[in-house]
Amino acid sequence: MHGGSGGRRSAGERWAGLALALLLGCDGGSATQLLLVVDTDLEPGVEIAAVRATATIDGQPSAAELPVPSEEALPLSLGVAPGTREDAEVGIDLQALDPDGAVVLGWRARTRFVPGEARRLEAVLTRRCGGEPLCEAEPGTTCRGGACVDEWIDPESLPAARPGEAPADLVMEPRRAPDGGGDDAGPGDGGACVEGASCMAGPCALGELRCDGDAPRCEEVERLAEGAACGEGRTCDAEGRCG
Q1: What is the number of structural domains in the chain?
Q2: 10-24, 64-78, 141-155, 157-171 — which is least confidently predicted?
Q3: 198 in a domain, yes or no?
Q4: Average pLDDT value for residue range 176-194
Q5: Is the pLDDT score of 212 beyond 90?
Q6: Mean pLDDT, rounded, of the chain
Q7: CB 106 within 8 A of CB 98
Q8: How far is CA 18 from CA 88, 154, 164, 169, in A?
C-alpha cells in the first residue's frame, strides 16, 4: 500500500521468509485456515518498525512479532489455524510498533473459521487510526479507515485464499498441546518437542520450548507490551498480568 506496489514481492513469493503460523494445537493437516494479509500506509523503518499480532482462538491467545524494515517486507502474511474445533471463533489484534517499540495504532477483528476452507482477511494499518484512540468508548468496535466499525466480520463474507499463497514450505509453530488440555505450551503427548520453538509462557509472555528433563517446558523470554490483547477482551498490564 505504502508507495504503491512497485518493487514488492507477491504474498506467495514471501511465504517462506515472512509467513508465520499462529497455531493452537493444529497438526498442520487441516485445510481450515485464515490467511491474514497486513498492509500499512505508515513509513516502514520510520513510522513503523514491526507488527505485533495476537490471535485468540476459543479464548487461547498466541502472539508473534514481525519486523517491517522496508517497503519490500509488505504486505505481511500470517497463517492462523484452529485448534480442536474447526469452527472456532478467532480474534485478531494487530499493533503497529515504531522503532522505539511504542504502539502507534491498532486494528482488531473477530470472525470464525470456515471448516475445511482457507479464507483471506485483509488488514490495513492506516495513520487515519493513529493518535488518540478513536473507538474505546464504543465496546466491540475498532478503527478501520479512520472510522469506528464493528469488530465482527461475517466469515462467509471473507474471500477464499488465493492459490499459491500458502506453499508447502510454510513454517508453522504449535502454540499449545493438541489435546487441548490446559494452557501448557508443550507439544502434547503425540508430538515431538522442538528445542527453541516459540510458545506462550503465559497469556502475556512469549517463550521458547526447552526439551530437557521429563517434560517439555516453555521458558519465558519476553513479555507482551502493556495494552496487548490477551483474550476475552482483556489486556496485559505493565507487570505482565492479563486482566
Answers
A1: 1
A2: 10-24
A3: no
A4: 42
A5: no
A6: 73
A7: no
A8: 25, 27, 15, 11
Would you say residue 157 has pLDDT above 90?
A: yes
Give yes or no for a contact between 92 and 129, defined as CB atoms under 8 angstroms apart: no
CB-count exposure of residue 91 (10 Å: 0-12, 13-18, 19+): buried
17 exposed, middle or buried (CB, 10 Å; 0-12, 13-18, 19+)? exposed
How far from each other are the two terminal CA atoms of the chain, in whole angstroms?
35
Do 188 and 178 contact (CB within 8 A), yes or no? yes
What is the per-residue pLDDT for 165?
Answer: 57
The one-letter code for the residue type at 124 is: V
Instruction: Answer whether residue 228 is part of any domain.
Output: no
5 domain residue, yes or no: no
| 193 located within any domain | no
Domain that holds residue 25: 11-173
Q: Sign of dihedral through CA atoms 41, 134, 145, 117?
A: positive
Residue 132 has pLDDT above 80, yes or no: no
* CA dist., res. 83 & res. 64, Å (int): 17
